[in-house]
Amino acid sequence: MSNAPPKMTASGVDVFYGAKQAIRNVSIDVRQEDVTAFIGPSGCGKSTFLRTLNRMNDTIPGARVSGDIRLDGEDVYAKTMDVVQLRARVGMVFQKPNPFPKSIFENVAYGPRIHGLARSRADLAQIVERSLTRAGLWNEVKDRLGDSGTALSGGQQQRLCIARAIAVDPEVILMDEPCSALDPVATARIEELIHDLRGRYAIVIVTHNMQQAARVSQRTAFFHLGQLVEYGDTSDIFTNPREERTKDYITGRYG
Amino acid sequence: MSKSLVPEAPVSAAQSVERRPTDWRTASMQRRVRQRYAAERRFRWLGLAAVVASAAFLLFLLASMLARGAGGFVETRIALPLDLARAGLDVTPAQLRGPRADLALAGAGLERAVDTAAETAFPRVGGAALLSDAAWLRVREAVKRDPGLLGRRATIDVPVASRLDIAFKGGGTRADRAIARTLAPQLSRGLNRDFLGGADSTDPTRAGIWGALKGSLLTMLVTLLLAFPIGVFSALYLEEYAPRNRWTDLIEVSINNLAAVPSIIFGLLGLAVFLGTFHMPRSAALVGGLTLALMTTPVIVIAARNAIGAVPPSIRDAARALGASPVQVVFHHVLPLALPGILTGTIIGMARALGETAPLLMIGMRAFIAAPPERLTDPATVLPVQIFLWSDDVQAGFVEKTSAAIIVLLVFLLAMNGLAIYLRNRFETRW
């Protein structure tokens, strides 16, 4: 499709938890202009793999990653890579909405503040407004920015978490089953939001829901038992899978 | 698929247990329901009884302390007629204005003059023995305020001896009560400033609680300044940074054991280390605070670890995913959320330390200290030790002093807990 170099590349990635191998030799390219979906049955390692992309597995005792992961050609696991900066460039949204128990404003302002991105108070307020607007939450909360972020509904909380992630202006946003704790209406809002954010950020989304993958993504990767079974354009994966296992999963034979 | 769900052969009679729809109105069902409600009621009554019993004990304790101890804050005074002009005091008005006024008055024989006045005023009922040791000091203060007293007749209210004080408050021997009745027109009551502002004394009417209270304050200050930061930082390190291995397991077990070590052993440790090895001053609030800090730190570590462990991991993940460094995660998110729990643990530890007597006896804080401590290294005693010392005293006057000291200790404790609860509510995060 495009000839631009991929935003992130992973090649030959293995992940171990102690002696157990969770990910086996996975290679994937993530393109800047696409939404990439990881699908697969529970425990297949798609979330584990997602978390290797911004080194969130570092904090899990016994977790070990080998292979090569690059962000714009830079080795993510290099000694010289600053994890703090990496995570500012590769943001993350989690399965359960996890706003800080602080005000809505403080939730969004936290990232820019610790990275010194705002030059002034007014600048910070502008960043907060822009992030909340992009996350489609501004109109709902603009009159109560001082309220606690935890007082919002589940769907609003998740959009607040997305606003918080984009406030530090990341290049990539990783979403780990962002809709699994939400009702269908809130899910639809988030999917719309992913459409709107596409292109501005490279987005990787892990999902259980194949319809969701089909709706929001341009590229889909199917994981099974820690291995990448098939990776390609979403339309191909869902209409014309090359692998038997992919076809079985998509048609609901297992999972 | 569907075939296997239907039994093919008829089931034999022995295998089939006839299932009828449950009849909820049978006698046995009704009995079960009644029994269940009875059990609920019994449990509620038991709980209520337990709460009432503990409240009753608390009320009894407070009421009996107040009844016995209230008198400790009140002194009996007697109107003593004085004629200092005739007493032949060798002191000039100029001497009274200088800083050496106390010395001048003592040297001039004021104490003897007061005693003589008492002998003259109350000849048959005890004379000078009716007055407290502090009586002439009260006259001295009066003279310093108004040097004109040296040149005229006057009547000054001075505190009476413990025996008469008790009799006037309705206790003591029959003979003492008779004296109190005779002198009743001259006797009055007033707030005992010596008790609130002074230190220990051999005369119960002069004995004060301020020395012990200040000792407790200084000791608690040292304990808090040491135990709180050390405890919280140990807990943070163990929870957030330390790897989980055999060493950290060993440390955890050791901390739990330390929290359960009898306090007297910490006293011996303090004696051996702080006094024996480091030659710190005996009976000092500094050493008391150090010793109690040894005892309190493990309690704070355990409480703080629990509070830190209870902070949801999702909050740490959220902060980390935004690029917060480990220190930022801890100080911006984990510590504020854990603070209420940490403060609760600290209150418990400090309350225990405040009431602790045994380890302080070991490092010499049971000495007779007649002046409130000025510095951390001055000889001091603390409230519970003072209570112990007074309750041990043979003089009847110390009975109400003991109860009054207990009231002061309880008020101190309540004030400390109140402050901690206020702080906890301020930092509490509403989810």
UniProtKB/TrEMBL annotation, chain A:
Keywords of this entry: ATP-binding, Nucleotide-binding, Phosphate transport, Transport
UniProt xrefs under InterPro entries: AAA+_ATPase, ABC_transporter-like_ATP-bd, ABC_transporter-like_CS, P-loop_NTPase, PstB-like
The keyword Protein transport belongs to this UniProt entry's keyword annotation: no
PROSITE patterns tied to this protein: ABC_TRANSPORTER_1, ABC_TRANSPORTER_2
Residue ranges of coiled coil: none
GO MF term set: ATP binding
Keyword flag Transmembrane helix: no
Pfam annotation, one family: ABC_tran
Domain ABC transporter: 8-250
Protein's recorded name: Phosphate ABC transporter ATP-binding protein PstB
Organism classification: Bacteria, Pseudomonadati, Pseudomonadota, Alphaproteobacteria, Sphingomonadales
Automatic annotation (TrEMBL), chain B:
Region feature (Disordered): 1-23
Spans through the membrane: 45-67, 216-238, 258-278, 285-304, 404-423
SUPFAM superfamilies per UniProt: MetI-like (SSF161098)
Keywords of this entry: Cell membrane, Membrane, Transmembrane, Transmembrane helix, Transport
Residues annotated as domain ABC transmembrane type-1: 213-420
Topology class, membrane: Multi-pass membrane protein
PROSITE patterns for this protein: ABC_TM1
Keyword Magnesium: no
Compartments, record wording: Cell inner membrane; Cell membrane
Family: Belongs to the binding-protein-dependent transport system permease family. CysTW subfamily.
Protein name in the entry: Phosphate transport system permease protein PstA
Organism: Sphingomonas citri
